[in-house]
Amino acid sequence: MTKYTPMMEQYLKIKAQHKDAFLFFRLGDFYEMFFDDAINAARELEITLTKRDAGQKEPIPMCGVPYHSAANYIKNLIEKGYKIAICEQVEDPKTAKGVVKREVVQLITPGTVMESNMLNEHDHNYLASLSHFEDGSYAVVYNDLSIGENSIALIDQGWEAVIHELYNQPVKEIVVASDLPDNLQEDLREKLQVTLSYQDEITFNAEYRDLCDSLNDERLVTAFSRLLNYIQHTQKRSLDHLQPARIIKLDYHLSLDMYSKRNLELTETMLKKGKQGSLLWVLDQTVTAMGSRMLKKWLERPLLNRNLIERRQDIVEGFYHGFMERDSLREILKSVYDLERLAGRVAYGNVNARDLTQLKESLKKIPSVKATLKQFGRENIDDLSDKLTYPESIISILDDSLIEDPPVSIREGSIIKDGYNTTLDSYREASRNGKQWITELEHKEKQETNIKSLKIGYNRVFGYYIEVTKANLHLLPEGRYERKQTLTNAERYITPELKEKERLILEAEEKSVDLEYSLFLEIREQVKEYIPEIQRLADVVSEIDVLQGFAAVSEKNNYTRPRFVDDRLSIKNGRHPVIEEVMKEGTFVPNDILLDQDTDILLITGPNMSGKSTYMRQLALTVIMGQIGCFVPCDEAELTLFDQIFTRIGAADDLVSGQSTFMVEMLEANHAISNATDKSLILLDEIGRGTSTYDGMALAQSIIEYIHDNIHAKTLFSTHYHELTELEDSLEKVKNIHVRAEEYEGNVVFLHQIKEGAADESYGIHVAKLANLPQSLIDRASSILNQLESSEKKEISTEYKTDGQLSFFAEEQSEPAPAEKDIDKSIKKQLKNLDLFDMTPMDAMNELYRLQKEAKK
Ligand code: ADP
Ligand code: MG
């Protein structure tokens, strides 16, 4: 067996306990890594891999990062989803016998980072835990360590519901029990892209007992304890800012499945994964980081309770009309710092004096926030004002103790005000007196020696000294000074009395820095007492901020307050909130929508690119905006409360996931059908594209029938299968609408206008024209189509509906000979089956070329 040095033995022992983390092993001024850790860290961090000879034949791979710049390297690894165990020397190397004792003092993991440079100020950073139970239920806990927030949900609709719940939450890490089945663990990693951690031991720590008080179900207590145990295990300290777990009642909220969260681009776009272009981007007119985090949370969990929604609406209306007051409210809120994260840092112990000053300044703003709110003269806003209570004594504590503009460091003094502590004052007095004495000494020496350039200076190595230039040395009296240092053109001297004063000054300074530090810790402890109050305050401030933001955006974009009614949804001149924002003003075409007792399903037809998908998403976004309490983009709206939204966006639009397979499409449709109720909204966009025409059409039809007969959910169904429009006749609550397009000088013009009834058939070839396919190719395609159309009319008119549309292709055709008919039929079928939008122009060209050859035969 290889024999290692004692230090390396120590390393290996500690590493064995932290196999899933990089072990940052403190050695003097560096954190060193060894073996595989070193190899992997060198690769990930792009730092040099070296070797250490540790007493055996093979040198050990090693790399290190300086202690002082470790934060950046840690950040880099965390962002890549790794964990880091910080191992420090826990005794003074000078007094240690043998190998210095070392211990892991903290585990930094993606879900537990506290450092502000690793956190996004506009988003939560969640550590989640997942517990599974024998009865098939699951519990999910979310924790944001940076602010101490905890929430918990019980899920008993099976595993899929767990994934849908966790999807799109800002979860970086999930703590599970190690006996969670492997395939489920794999699911979490793959679908949610999170780091998994394990915590099997669950002890019901007395310290955390009251955090669990609100939990009325043993499963919830177990789940929450798993999380708390993991936090304790990683942070190795008690955290006073953790709040009792708030129970998320999933059926109190409009629930969005994973596909809707993604497809509707609520908080990020599918393509770029950024906020820009999302609904959040349009709606976010908050002025505090706390407010923007809360808005994001609201968007992901719209409300179901009409009273709660209407309360929000009422406040938004008040803010909307009080323009001047809202403006001053916004100005004041802008100077309120991130109270939640400040409170988190107070508890965590990494708060500095500057942070506390920010806390104080923020609290000082609260009275004017309260007063401004009162100016709106609206009951619900008055209530908000009354809820803004805050610990006023913090202000005096901090005002009395901290200087105006303290430094970032809390270990170098200059934090505490004069007059706060008499001992500190006496040290400062001593130091000031000493310095005064030195200034006087300098003056006296100058006079006595008659050397004008004589000066007294200070450096860290020699302390205070008297400096005389070489040219003046002859003026110095004999024996009075002791030479200490020689420079090129000066000598430095000391005297016993100068050294005595120096000792007093340095002693006083050292003592005062130490004292300032411990006074600061005391102050911090005092502030800690008020954390729950600060957290409550932060919550109200965030809510005010979100609601004033709703008013601001509603005014800016001309939104109106929707009314909630039962079983009827009517929107006049509705707009897509995001598309209208990115389009030139006034160019978005508004549209109406009506779903009521007589209409459950709207079947939308219209050419490609006409605006079908936009119309569908517009409805979903409007519903969500309504249910978070915001006004909505239209002239007039009656909305009904939906319990769930399901979306399935057609293969042609589903460019991002790349999974345009029929299977995925069917899975998503199945998910909607098996979970929707008669209170749900279903958006099925061009379903059935992923398979051949007849399969797809048959499935699409049976899905519509199933929803119509069994679910009664309000449904928007867009389709390019024109044949489906006949369902209006057989299914009572199906209604056809279409997007209008017109032909103008041989080109199709999209009017983006929704009209009643079914559309003319697809304008595919005209879209090909827009895509700049060669004119000769388009001409030929038009004539093929035309032939097909005319033969179809005669041959199979019962099967296809033609109604003489597409007349702009008209070109007198002689009747084809019988032999040609079969060829025509086959070409027509092939042409029909082409999915132009899934083809590159080159593919289309090749395909048409082949068809043309066949036609010429
Ligand atoms: P479809 O689903 O019918 O193929 P889309 O909904 O994807 O069409 O819309 C195609 C494009 O048309 C959109 O990207 C948008 O720019 C534009 N568009 C859609 N609806 C409207 C509208 N109501 N007003 C103006 N432009 C619109
Ligand atoms: Mg579409």
TrEMBL record:
The lineage of its organism: Bacteria, Bacillati, Bacillota, Bacilli, Bacillales. Signal peptide: none annotated. Pfam families: MutS_I, MutS_II, MutS_III, MutS_IV, MutS_V. Residues 680-696 form the DNA mismatch repair proteins mutS family domain. Gene3D superfamilies: 1.10.1420.10, DNA repair protein MutS, domain I (3.40.1170.10), MutS, connector domain (3.30.420.110), P-loop containing nucleotide triphosphate hydrolases (3.40.50.300). Belongs to the DNA mismatch repair MutS family. Keywords: ATP-binding, DNA damage, DNA repair, DNA-binding, Nucleotide-binding. This is DNA mismatch repair protein MutS. ATP binds at G606, P607, N608, M609, S610, G611, K612, S613. This protein is involved in the repair of mismatches in DNA. It is possible that it carries out the mismatch recognition step. This protein has a weak ATPase activity. CDD domains: ABC_MutS1.
